[in-house]
């Protein structure tokens, strides 16, 4: 015979049904009294708040006057705030009283689910006359907080290891596990072994760690930032920041006795593992020559390789000021001519944006020639601007002299509409032994830009005559684009572009044309742009005509789609789809075909994938090769990468690629690895680039790069000098340092906002500083009790040419010391940290001084005599802890030692009344 299982389902159903229908039975009397209880709400849901209320209605149906009081019973999750209520009912039939009930939710282990609150009507002796209950549903809570005891740490010059701590506190009602990591820059090391922290509700744990500041790089810096990243089991992250400041007895302003240029020497070894490796050397850097002045240096040698030469040498010296640039060395410019070779360049800039530039090519890199160019941009009126370009190019190798000029006027027709008109002329003279040709030409163009609330319009055309000198010869360039905003995120528009160019035989521009381009595209577009994504769709008609005037025209009906979605700043997905139908209007023998180009690119943090697939030729020369020799044409490419950070100084990127092409059927697998190792203390960078092609050893290469930072002195810096500042107790009051006076060693002060500390001889060294006014502040961080500077807590002095030593005399002073005294509830699990709280002393003269409490809540001031308002920073307190008296008035007498304490009181918890 089977045992019957307990009817758990029926029992749960019965209890829940009892709760849900309790409004119909809440007037039942449990002890025969004449009092009926009814609640405003018979059940409440906790939605995250800790403060709740309900109302109870008490109806008396008796005939005699009765005095009663209310009692409450609740579990450990509930604290009743309502005071014990006494009341009297007269003999009026159906006498009714409505009373509020206030209560809070306590954080405690496993205090979840339905909690009962029982309300009792008791007689004067405490015996129950009647009772009823309502219920509160407390869901699972995973609240927590993290605090750092000292968010700002000052490190003295003699310290190697600095301790710090942070606290994790579980404010929820369930067990929780936390993990953490400590992140710092390369200049400090954190000594800590991170372990998971498991806390019960209401518990907290203090984590201790040390900062190892015995690092040469940190000793050169003045500050550092440390981040403690704490994560709960649900993935919620809190970051704590610690600002680390190193102080010493030296005050500097990042100036040096010698001006030096931080040059970087670079050694490159390229294409190792192949038959033709080569090597080169580079040198680059810059030097600040004063305010707004800088000298830039760059040089790279030719490539050195066995049995071969190169012409890759480049470099320049550039001197920059706020208004002028001067450059001598290799130029790389384009002005319709390719300007590549040795030359000079000068540029002058004005505050209103106008500028004037001139450069001259002395000798071309690959040909014997010179080029002189002048460019300018001038504001004639607030609405009218004029730009000009004058060019003189003399190619001695081809015996061609060219002169060209272009002028452009920009006029603001309306507030958001600009019209540009261009015009110019050209002249070219070709000198040969058998013929001498001279031609003249012109260029004209316009451009209009207008931007409205709903639309954008850009339209421009440039026409160059067939004899215009340079690479724009015979070109016609159209660019027209109109966009209209249909809504906040959606726009639509149309566009047209034309690029018609004739590349002529440079030796005789009149005789014949060598190479043509005549591409045109007409289309419409739709753009949908959101906060995290971009989507566009653009159908168009695309004509491609290249190679020569007699070559075929490829007509393409084209549709392009682009989509990008950003998950966050480091993760995204990009999709590109281009479909085209290609036909040949003037060559009906060529069969039309469909072409596809597809790209998918995705990245998640340090990982990425890219896939590309092409089916049938898409661009002109692919099309040309295919129609002459028709065959299957496909290309598939796959690429994956992974950025790996192997340590503070090591970075590595791995690329794995695969490529397959038809009709040749070639396949290629490729592995590329880029490795970088940095030693900041030594100024060294080491890079290794490796390319491996499985099955094709001849294509495997290794590139090595070594960079070394150099500091090369150039000349003596006449603007800086050095001096010392001595702090001492002036025993005889003569304000002069005597042998009998006691020096103030290891005392902190602020100089122009920077914290410094005197050495064992009471001296602060000022090294390589400029002659100017210095502000000294002894009020905030001076760690000397009972002594104060004779000239005040805040002083200034102006450094003169011959000063080598400045003495700061101290005298005995009045002082105020005190402590934050905590009046704590022994039954409470809440904690209070008294350290790092600002105490301010406001003098009746208007001057203010402040200090911070230490870890024990103690503080002190050195103050001049006078009347002060002493107060605690109240903004750091919450409703659980508050100062009983946040401010005190004091009258400080000369050399008086006064003690002032502030009482911090914790809010008391209400008492639960529980009756058997």
What does this structure look like?
The protein has 916 residues and is mostly beta strands. It is built from three helices and 65 strands. It has a 26-stranded antiparallel β-barrel. The longest helix has 13 residues. The N terminus and C terminus are likely disordered.
Write the layout of secondary structure elements.
Elements: H1 8-20, E1 35-39, E2 43-45, E3 51-60, E4 66-74, E5 78-80, E6 86-89, E7 95-105, E8 113-122, E9 128-138, E10 144-148, E11 152-155, E12 161-170, E13 176-184, E14 189-191, E15 197-199, E16 204-212, H2 216-219, E17 223-232, E18 237-246, E19 250-251, E20 258-261, E21 264-272, E22 278-290, E23 293-300, E24 314-320, E25 324-334, E26 338-349, E27 355-364, E28 369-379, E29 384-395, E30 400-414, E31 417-431, E32 436-451, E33 455-464, E34 476-485, E35 490-504, E36 513-529, E37 533-544, E38 554-568, E39 571-583, E40 593-604, E41 607-615, H3 620-628, E42 634-645, E43 650-662, E44 667-679, E45 684-692, E46 701-709, E47 712-716, E48 720-729, E49 742-743, E50 748-751, E51 754-757, E52 763-770, E53 773-777, E54 787-789, E55 794-798, E56 805-812, E57 814-823, E58 838-843, E59 848-852, E60 858-863, E61 866-872, E62 881-883, E63 887-892, E64 897-899, E65 902-906
């Amino acid at each position: 015979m089977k045992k019957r299982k307990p009817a758990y389902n029926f029992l749960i159903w019965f209890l829940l049904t009892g709760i849900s229908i309790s409004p119909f039975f809440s007037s039942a009397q449990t002890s025969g009294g004449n009092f009926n209880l009814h609640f405003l709400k018979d059940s409440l849901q906790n939605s995250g708040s800790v403060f709740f209320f309900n109302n109870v209605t008490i109806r008396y149906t008796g005939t005699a006057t009765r005095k009663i009081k209310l009692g409450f019973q609740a579990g450990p999750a509930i604290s009743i705030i309502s005071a014990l209520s006494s009341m009297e009912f007269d003999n009026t039939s159906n006498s009714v009283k409505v009373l509020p009930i206030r209560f809070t939710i306590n954080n405690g282990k496993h205090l979840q689910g339905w909690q009962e609150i029982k309300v009792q009507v008791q007689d004067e002796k405490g015996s129950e006359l009647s009772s009823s209950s309502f219920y509160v549903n407390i869901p699972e809570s995973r609240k927590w907080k993290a605090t750092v005891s000292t968010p700002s740490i000052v490190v003295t010059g003699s310290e190697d290891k600095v301790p710090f701590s942070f606290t994790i506190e579980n404010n929820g009602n369930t067990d929780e596990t936390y993990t953490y990591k400590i992140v710092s820059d390369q200049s400090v090391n954190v000594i800590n072994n991170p372990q998971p922290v498991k806390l019960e509700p209401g518990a907290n744990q203090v984590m201790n760690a040390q900062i190892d500041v015995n690092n040469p790089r940190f000793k050169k810096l003045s500050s550092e930032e440390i981040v403690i990243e704490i994560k709960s089991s649900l993935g919620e992250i809190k970051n704590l920041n610690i600002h680390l400041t190193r102080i010493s007895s030296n005050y500097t302003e990042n100036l040096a006795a010698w001006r030096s240029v931080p040059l970087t020497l670079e050694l490159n070894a390229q294409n190792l593992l192949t038959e033709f490796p080569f090597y080169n050397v580079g040198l680059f850097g810059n030097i600040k020559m004063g305010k707004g002045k800088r000298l830039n240096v760059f040089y790279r040698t030719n490539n050195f390789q066995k049995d071969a030469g190169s012409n890759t040498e480049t470099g320049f010296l550039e001197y920059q000021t706020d208004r002028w640039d001067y450059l001598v060395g290799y130029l790389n410019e384009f002005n319709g001519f390719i300007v590549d070779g040795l030359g000079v360049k000068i540029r002058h800039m004005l505050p209103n944006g106008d500028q004037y530039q001139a450069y001259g090519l002395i000798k071309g890199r690959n040909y014997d020639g010179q080029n002189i160019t002048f460019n300018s941009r001038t504001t004639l009126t607030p609405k009218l601007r004029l730009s000009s370009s004058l060019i003189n190019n003399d190619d001695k190798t081809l015996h061609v002299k060219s002169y060209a000029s272009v002028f452009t006027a920009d006029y603001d027709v309306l507030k958001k509409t600009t019209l540009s008109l261009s015009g110019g002329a050209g002249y070219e003279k070709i000198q040969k032994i058998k013929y001498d040709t001279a031609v003249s030409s012109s260029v004209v163009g316009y451009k209009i830009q207008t931007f409205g609330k709903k639309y954008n319009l850009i339209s421009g055309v440039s026409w160059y005559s067939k004899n215009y000198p340079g690479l724009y010869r015979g070109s016609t360039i159209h660019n027209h684009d109109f966009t209209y905003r249909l809504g906040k995120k959606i726009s639509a528009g149309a566009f047209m572009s034309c690029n018609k160019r004739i590349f002529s035989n440079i030796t005789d521009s009149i005789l014949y044309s060598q190479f043509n381009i005549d591409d045109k595209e007409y289309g419409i577009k739709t753009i949908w742009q959101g906060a995290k994504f971009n989507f566009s769709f653009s159908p168009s008609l695309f004509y491609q005509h290249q190679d020569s005037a007699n070559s075929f025209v490829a007509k393409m009906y084209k549709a392009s789609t682009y989509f990008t979605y950003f998950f966050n700043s480091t993760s995204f997905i990009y999709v590109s789809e281009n479909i085209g139908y290609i036909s040949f209007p003037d060559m009906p023998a060529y069969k039309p075909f469909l072409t596809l180009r597809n790209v998918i690119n995705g990245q998640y943090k340090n990982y990425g994938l890219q896939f590309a697939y092409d089916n049938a030729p898409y661009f002109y020369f692919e099309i040309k090769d295919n129609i002459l020799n028709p065959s299957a044409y496909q290309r598939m490419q796959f690429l994956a990468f992974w950025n790996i950070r192997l340590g503070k100084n090591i970075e590595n990127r791995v690329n794995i690629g695969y490529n397959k092409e038809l009709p040749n059927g070639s396949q290629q697998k490729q592995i590329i690895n880029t490795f970088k190792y940095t030693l900041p203390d030594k100024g060294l960078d080491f890079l290794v680039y490796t390319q491996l092609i499985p099955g094709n050893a001849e294509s495997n290469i290794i590139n090595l790069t070594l960079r070394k930072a150099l500091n090369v002195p150039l000349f003596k810096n006449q603007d800086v000098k050095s001096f010392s500042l001595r702090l001492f107790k002036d025993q005889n009051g003569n304000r002069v340092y005597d042998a009998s006076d006691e020096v103030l060693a290891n005392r902190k002060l602020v100089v122009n906002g920077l914290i410094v500390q005197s050495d064992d001889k009471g001296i602060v060294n000022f090294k390589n500083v400029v002659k100017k006014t210095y502000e000294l502040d002894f009020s905030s961080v001076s760690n000397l009790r009972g002594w104060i500077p004779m000239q005040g807590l805040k002083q200034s002095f102006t450094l003169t040419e011959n000063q080598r030593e400045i003495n700061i005399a101290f005298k005995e002073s009045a002082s105020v010391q005190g402590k934050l005294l905590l009046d704590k509830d022994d039954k409470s699990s809440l904690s209070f940290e008294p350290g790092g709280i600002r105490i301010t002393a406001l003098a009746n003269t208007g001057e203010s001084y402040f200090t911070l409490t230490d870890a024990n809540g103690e503080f002190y001031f050195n103050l001049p005599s006078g009347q002060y308002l002493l107060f605690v920073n109240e903004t750091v307190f919450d409703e659980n802890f508050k100062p009983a008296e946040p401010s005190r008035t004091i009258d400080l007498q000369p050399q008086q030692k006064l003690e002032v304490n502030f009482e911090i009181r914790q809010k008391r918890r209400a008492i639960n009344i529980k009756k058997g």
